[in-house]
From TrEMBL:
<feature type="transmembrane region" description="Helical">
    <location>
        <begin position="193"/>
        <end position="211"/>
    </location>
</feature>
<keyword id="KW-1133">Transmembrane helix</keyword>
<feature type="transmembrane region" description="Helical">
    <location>
        <begin position="151"/>
        <end position="173"/>
    </location>
</feature>
<keyword id="KW-0472">Membrane</keyword>
<feature type="transmembrane region" description="Helical">
    <location>
        <begin position="53"/>
        <end position="77"/>
    </location>
</feature>
<dbReference type="Pfam" id="PF01810">
    <property type="entry name" value="LysE"/>
</dbReference>
<keyword id="KW-1003">Cell membrane</keyword>
<protein>
    <submittedName>
        <fullName>Lysine transporter LysE</fullName>
    </submittedName>
</protein>
<dbReference type="InterPro" id="IPR001123">
    <property type="entry name" value="LeuE-type"/>
</dbReference>
<feature type="transmembrane region" description="Helical">
    <location>
        <begin position="121"/>
        <end position="139"/>
    </location>
</feature>
<keyword id="KW-0812">Transmembrane</keyword>
């Protein structure tokens, strides 16, 4: 057994509560679904899940804890993450109305949003700190499995639940935005809307204070 069944109900309740709190990941996935359709939102969701899986593996191996204890490393991550989001925002804002993606271009756009979702989460030091501080709380001394193995199992469960929640969000938001995708006026400002979202995420990240784990 990799997860203490006595702690599992509390863990699941906590994860659900965390998923319902609006955050940058939810904003990115919802806005990409609204602007470009369900397929792009699905890819953004899988991008978020991919970064979560990577962070889970790093946490299980103890690598993320080493980074989290280094204030300079966290600050560098914060600056790189903010700069990356600013670049994404700028790329969207300078796109002309004629560059609004057609349905036939959804595959390329979906892959692009997948990569952006992966990078924006990996370069967010708060995401790394979350895994370092959250998962160990549910590691049990009553199991024969090591703390790393338990954190891996807890992280995988978290990512599966997060992916399911994000896909549900994509379905709901994608349905609301379906009519917008056929609206010529909205399509004129499609990329601009996403540019504003990336700028907002960049400001949120650069303005935030990240405390190292002591």
């Amino acid at each position: 057994m990799m997860i203490d069944l006595a702690l599992l109900p509390v863990y699941l309740t906590t994860v659900v509560a965390l998923l319902l709190i609006p955050g940058p990941d939810m904003l990115l996935i919802a806005s990409s679904s609204l602007s470009y359709g369900r397929k792009v939102g699905v890819y953004a969701s899988f991008g978020n899940a991919t970064s979560g899986l990577i962070l889970t593996l790093l946490a299980a191996m103890g690598v993320s804890a080493l980074v989290a204890m280094n204030p300079m490393a966290l600050e560098l991550l914060r600056i790189l993450g903010g700069a990356y989001l600013l670049k994404m925002g700028w790329d969207c804002m300078r796109s002309s109305a004629s560059e609004a993606p057609e349905i036939a271009q959804q595959n390329n756009l979906a892959k692009l949003l997948y990569r952006r979702a992966v990078m924006s989460n990996l370069l967010n030091p708060k995401a790394l700190l979350f895994f370092v501080l959250f998962l160990p709380q549910f590691v049990s001394t009553q199991l024969s499995a090591s703390s790393g193995e338990q954190m891996l199992a807890l992280g995988l469960l978290l990512n599966v639940m997060g992916l399911a929640f994000n896909l549900l969000l994509v379905v709901l938001v994608g349905s609301l935005g379906k009519s917008l995708l056929n609206n010529d006026k909205f399509r004129t400002y499609q990329n601009k809307f996403m540019g504003v979202v990336f700028f907002a995420l960049a400001i949120w990240l650069l303005a935030s204070q990240v405390q190292s784990v002591s």
